[in-house]
Specification:
The protein is built from 7 helices and 9 strands; from the N terminus they run ββαααβαββαααββββ. It is of the alpha+beta class. The strands form 3 sheets. The chain has a 5-stranded mixed beta sheet with strand order 3-9-8-6-7. A two-stranded antiparallel ribbon has the order 1-2. A two-stranded antiparallel sheet has the order 4-5. Strand 8 and strand 9 form a beta hairpin. The longest helix has about 70 residues.
């Protein structure tokens, strides 16, 4: 999994995401700051800082490579000079007496340098202690956030029990929102015309398999929802209310990328999907800040209410719990 550094309490993955859900591999993880699509869109200033940090890191790496090349060239020059100086050493033997006196002076200077080095080592020890304290604080904060997530996940599951529902797992292949949405429509017998609802088995990169997934229907849903997003005035108005013209521009960029396979999806897609499929979408998610519940309503009479659940950045479909109080 990869950690989002946005530090927003409403981060959809509660700061952690499956690599597949964000279309990444472990070797793609940047050394600096990484933000999920939601935190990047909601925190453009922080996203700019993250981008700047990545650019600075790239420049620094290039400088280091240049420095290594320059050092190698300088070393080669020194070796050539040393071979020429061997013939000069014989002429310098008569100057050794004078050099001995200079060496005595150098010894006293070395003692002073040694004292300065001791002082620098003490400063380094203090710097190391500060770093250890910072690392300990970060670890404690991660544990606190993890504990909060566990509590809030439990609360969310309790709410589902009250509704006689349970979570139904869909494949974490980067398209989990669309897979969950199509599963819910199929359960309500609201299959859109022209969609292929053949059930297939999804093979994941790490060897696991997830059966009974509406993969082709999910692909078609992404195409239709992204197309509707580009034409949605309601979505543009929602973005403007959230962050003005800057948010509208961010929305345009988001929509331009949303058609890509394995691109993460969220509230924008839900708002549009509710209208497109004429359903109400009840979105429940557990975050560090608590349990969030948002209902995206369609215009007019809803054909059904779909309960979609999000936990650790992964979407789940829901099923009725039969034979349980």
């Amino acid at each position: 999994m990869i950690h989002c550094d946005g530090e927003r309490t409403d981060c959809p993955g509660a700061s952690w995401f499956h690599f597949d859900c964000v279309a990444m591999k472990p070797e793609d993880v940047p050394a600096g700051v990484w933000l999920c699509a939601y935190c990047s869109a909601m925190s453009p200033a922080l996203a700019s800082v993250a981008q700047k940090a990545r650019e600075e890191e790239k420049v620094q790496k290039e400088k280091e490579e240049e420095a290594i090349k320059a050092a190698a060239a300088a070393w080669a020059d020194l070796e050539e000079e040393d071979s020429g100086e061997e013939s000069e050493d014989e002429e310098e033997e008569g100057e050794e007496d004078g050099e001995e006196k200079e060496e005595e002076m150098d010894d006293s200077e070395e003692e002073d340098d040694s004292e300065e080095e001791d002082g620098e080592e003490n400063e380094e020890d203090m710097s190391g202690s500060k770093k250890s304290a910072v690392d300990a604080k970060k670890l404690a904060d991660q544990l606190r956030r993890s504990n909060l997530m566990s509590v809030h996940c439990g609360l969310m599951e309790s709410k589902l029990l009250d509704l006689h529902l349970e979570m139904y797992y869909v494949a974490p292949n980067g398209n989990c929102f669309y897979l969950a949405l199509m599963d819910l429509l199929a359960e309500e017998n609201l299959r859109p015309q022209g969609y292929d609802f053949t059930l297939v088995t999804v093979k994941l990169d790490h060897g696991l398999k997830v059966e009974n997934q509406y993969v082709e229907a999910a692909k078609r849903a992404r195409v239709d929802i992204v197309k509707a997003m580009g034409a949605s005035e309601a979505l543009k108005q929602h973005a403007f209310e959230m962050g003005g013209e800057q948010a509208v521009e961010e929305l345009k960029k988001y929509v331009a990328d949303a058609h890509q396979d394995k691109k993460w999806s969220g509230e924008k897609e839900m708002l549009v999907a509710a209208q497109l499929y004429q359903v109400d979408i009840h979105h429940m998610s557990a975050t560090v800040g608590g349990v969030s519940e948002v209902v995206w309503k369609c215009d007019g009479q809803a054909r059904a209410t779909l309960y979609i659940v999000e936990k650790y950045g992964h979407f789940y479909s829901t099923r009725e719990r039969y034979g349980q109080e």
